[in-house]
Amino acid sequence: MTLIGWIQIALYCAVVLALVKPLGLYMTRVFTGERTLLSPVLGPVERGLYRLAGLDERQEQHWLAYAGAMVVFHILGFLVLYGILRLQAVLPLNPADQSAVAPDLAFNTSASFITNTNWQSYGGESTLSYLSQMLGLTHQNFLSAASGMAAAVALIRGFSRASTRTLGSFWVDLTRATLYVLLPLCIVYTLFLVWQGIPQTLGASVDATTLEGAKQTIALGPVASQVAIKLLGTNGGGFFNANAAHPFENPTALANFVQMVSIFAIGAALTNVFGRMVGDERQGWAILAAMGVLFIAGVAVTYWAEAAGTPLLHGLGLEGGNLEGKEVRFGIVGSALFAVITTAASCGAVNAMHDSFTALGGMIPLINMQLGEIIVGGVGAGLYGMLIFVVVAIFVAGLMVGRTPEYLGKKIEAKEVKMAMLGILCLPLMMLGFTALATVLPAGLAGPANAGPHGFSEILYAYTSAAANNGSAFAGLSANTLFYNSTLALAMLVGRFFVKIPALAIAGSLAAKKTVPASAGTFPTHGGLFVGLLVGVIVIIGGLTFFPALALGPIVEHLAGQAGQTFATGG
Amino acid sequence: MLTHLRPALVLTAALTAITGIVYPLAMTGIAGAIFPAKAAGSLVERDGVVVGSALLGQNFASERYFHGRPSATVAPDPADASKTVAAPYNASSSGGSNLGPTSRALLDRVKDDVARLKSENPAAPVPMDLVTTSGSGLDPDISPEAALFQVPRVAKVRGLPEDRVRALVAAQTQDRLLGILGEQRVNVLALNLALDAGR
C-alpha cells in the first residue's frame, strides 16, 4: 500500500460525498413532482407520454397495484428483449453477421438485464449485433435502473406518509427517473467518455496491420452511450467481454476515476432523497454513514491483500502486488477500489479480473454481494435493501429494551419484520442452495476453470452475483451452458423480485400507519449508536449465514496459498 | 392486471425508442462530429496504413521492438470451432487468463516467462507486469521499469546506444494525472513507433 494509493481513495470518497447533497436535492424535486431546471424541455415530453399511455399523473397506486404494474412492465420488457436476441440475425445493424442467440442464453440474458444484473454468459463483441446492444440492452439498462429507483422512492413514501393507502404511481416514477435523472446525466457523460477515447460509431470492425505485419481485427461499436448507463444505472453489462478492463471501455486513469464516482453517485444521493422526504436529512446521513463504515473496511482489506501480492509469484523472485488480470494504467489501487465499489453497488462492471485476485482480495467483493449490496447499492435497490436491514436493526433494538420499536415515528410490527426477513432470507437461499446443487451435479462441476478451493469460489461467486443482481464474475467459470444459464437466471429473478416486492409490501403497510410523535423513550436513529447497531446487525446476519461457505472457498485457499500449495486443473 | 397493460405497452415502446434508438444514435452523431477520431477508435495510421489503435496493445514478438505484457486472449480454433487457440492481443475477443492465486497453470506460465526474461537481462529484477496477463488481454501499457528492463536488448538489436533508447523511454513515459490518479506507464505502440521513426 502506498500513500498515493490512499490519497486516491480519499479523493474518491470526497468527490462522492460532495455530490450527495446537490444530486439528492435535484432527485427529491424530480420525485415529488416539483419544477426543475429541465422541466421546460422535458415537461412536454413527459405529459405527452402520459397522454399516450392514458395516465393521470396524479392518480396514485396502492402498493399491490404499484407492484403489479412493475411486474407487468418487466414481463413485457423480458419478452421484447428475448425476441430481439433470438431474431438479431435477420434484424438490421448487424455488420459482423452475428447469428441468433441460443434459447438458453437468450433466456439468461433477458432475465439478467430486466433484473439490473447484467450477468453476461456471452462475449459482447463476439455474440451480439449493434441492434441487440443498443435497442435490446441499452434500453433495459435504463429501465431496470429506473424501476429500482421507483421502488426505493415508493418505500421512502411509506416512511414519510401517514394514514394513506397509496405510494405514488409506478408509471410516473419510472418515467421521471428515466427522463429527468438518467437520460440527461448520460448525455453529458457519454460525451466525456468519448473525449477520453471510448468509441461511439456504427461502423464495422477495422482491420489494422500491426508494426510486425500481422492482422489485428479491432472490434468497435456504439460503446460510450452504453458504458455511460451501465455505470450510472449500476447495470454493469459491458459492451466488450473484458468489460471496463477493455481500453475501449475505460481508456484512462481519469475515465476510471469518473466511472467509479458514477457507480456510487445516484445510490449515495438517494440516501439524501430519503432524508429530505422524511423531513430530517440526518436520517439519510446516518444510513450513508453505516454504508461508509462497511465500504472503507472492504477497501482496506482488498487493497491490502492485492498490494501484498501472492506467495506463488513471490516464490519466483518477483516483487510487488498482484498484477495478474489487472491493467497497468489503473494499477493495484485503481483495480482494488473499483472491485469493492462495483460489488458494493450492484454494478458488476469490472476493470480487472476478480477471478485472479488474491484469495482475500476476492473475498471482499463476494461478501459485499452476500450482504445484499446495501453499501450504497444498486440505484434504488441499495436503499430499499438497506432499509430492510434498518427494520430488522430497529426490531432488535426494540427487543433489547422490551418496547415496540419505532422508526421515523412508525411502529415496526410483525408484518414489517416478516417481510424484511423474507427479503433477507431469499438471497442466501439462492446463493447457497444453487451453489450446493452445482457442486454435486456433473453439469455444475464442469463449469470451474480453476481446481481446488478456487473452483468452489467460482461457483459460489456466480450464484452470489446472480442472486444479488450484481453481474460481475469469477469469469473462469464456463457459464454458457444449459445448466448454468437456467439456474443463474432463476437466481437473478428471485433475487430481484423477492426483495423488491416485500420492500413494497413494507412500504404499503407503513404508509397506512399513523405517525407516533417522538418521546423521551424514542431511540434516536440519526446518531452513532444507531449506525453502530445497524452495522452490527448486518455483519452478524451476513457472517452467520455465509461464513461456512467462505471458509470452504477463499479462506481455505488463502491458507493453502500461504503454505505454498497449488492446484492443477483436472487434478 | 389488464389496467396496467396500456401504460406498460405505451411506456415500453416510447421509452425503448428514446433510450434504445434516439439516445445512442444521437450520441453517435454528436460524438462523431465533436471527436471524430476518438469516436472511431483512436486509430493510428503510418504511411496511410492503419497500424492499430492508440488505446489497444498489439502483439510484439520481434527482438527489435519493446514487448507488451503477456496476453491471454484466444480465438476459435480453425480446425475445431468448439475449441479455442491462443491468439495474443485479439482485439475482437477480449479477456483475461482468469487463473486464480493458487493455480499451477499460472505458476508454470510465470516460471517460464521469468526464466526467459532473466536470461535476456540478468542485471535487473524482473518487473511484475511483464510476466502477468492483463484483464483485457489488450493492455496498451507497461510500467516504466518494464520498458527500461528491455532497453539493453532493443539497443543491441538495433545497434543504438542504450542512452538514446533510454531517453526515448523517458520521453514516452506518461505520469499520473495531476501526479495522483492512475499509474506511471509507457504506451508500447507509441514507443515502438517512435523507435521506428528515429532509426
TrEMBL record, chain A:
Gene Ontology molecular function: hydrolase activity; P-type potassium transmembrane transporter activity; potassium ion binding
Membrane-traversing stretches: 6-26, 63-85, 137-156, 177-198, 253-273, 285-305, 330-350, 357-376, 382-401, 422-445, 482-507, 528-551
Family annotation (InterPro entries): KdpA (IPR004623)
KW Transport (keyword) present: yes
A cellular component annotation (GO) from this entry: plasma membrane
Annotated compartments: Cell membrane
Membrane topology, as annotated: Multi-pass membrane protein
Keywords from the UniProt entry: Cell membrane, Hydrolase, Ion transport, Membrane, Potassium, Potassium transport, Transmembrane, Transmembrane helix, Transport
PANTHER family: POTASSIUM-TRANSPORTING ATPASE A CHAIN (PTHR30607), POTASSIUM-TRANSPORTING ATPASE POTASSIUM-BINDING SUBUNIT (PTHR30607:SF2)
Role of this protein: Part of the high-affinity ATP-driven potassium transport (or Kdp) system, which catalyzes the hydrolysis of ATP coupled with the electrogenic transport of potassium into the cytoplasm. This subunit binds the extracellular potassium ions and delivers the ions to the membrane domain of KdpB through an intramembrane tunnel.
Subunit structure: The system is composed of three essential subunits: KdpA, KdpB and KdpC.
Family (UniProt): Belongs to the KdpA family.
Name under which the protein is recorded: Potassium-transporting ATPase potassium-binding subunit
Natural source organism: Methylobacterium aquaticum
Gene: kdpA
TrEMBL record, chain B:
GO cellular component, one term: plasma membrane
One of the Pfam families matching this protein, by short name: KdpC
GO molecular function, one term: P-type potassium transmembrane transporter activity
Keywords linked to the UniProt accession: ATP-binding, Cell membrane, Ion transport, Membrane, Nucleotide-binding, Potassium, Potassium transport, Transmembrane, Transmembrane helix, Transport
Topology of the protein relative to the lipid bilayer: Single-pass membrane protein
Compartment(s) where it occurs, according to its Swiss-Prot or TrEMBL record: Cell membrane
Similarity-based family: Belongs to the KdpC family.
Record function comment: Part of the high-affinity ATP-driven potassium transport (or Kdp) system, which catalyzes the hydrolysis of ATP coupled with the electrogenic transport of potassium into the cytoplasm. This subunit acts as a catalytic chaperone that increases the ATP-binding affinity of the ATP-hydrolyzing subunit KdpB by the formation of a transient KdpB/KdpC/ATP ternary complex.
PANTHER family listed in its UniProt record: POTASSIUM-TRANSPORTING ATPASE C CHAIN, POTASSIUM-TRANSPORTING ATPASE KDPC SUBUNIT
Subunit structure: The system is composed of three essential subunits: KdpA, KdpB and KdpC.
Name this polypeptide is given: Potassium-transporting ATPase KdpC subunit
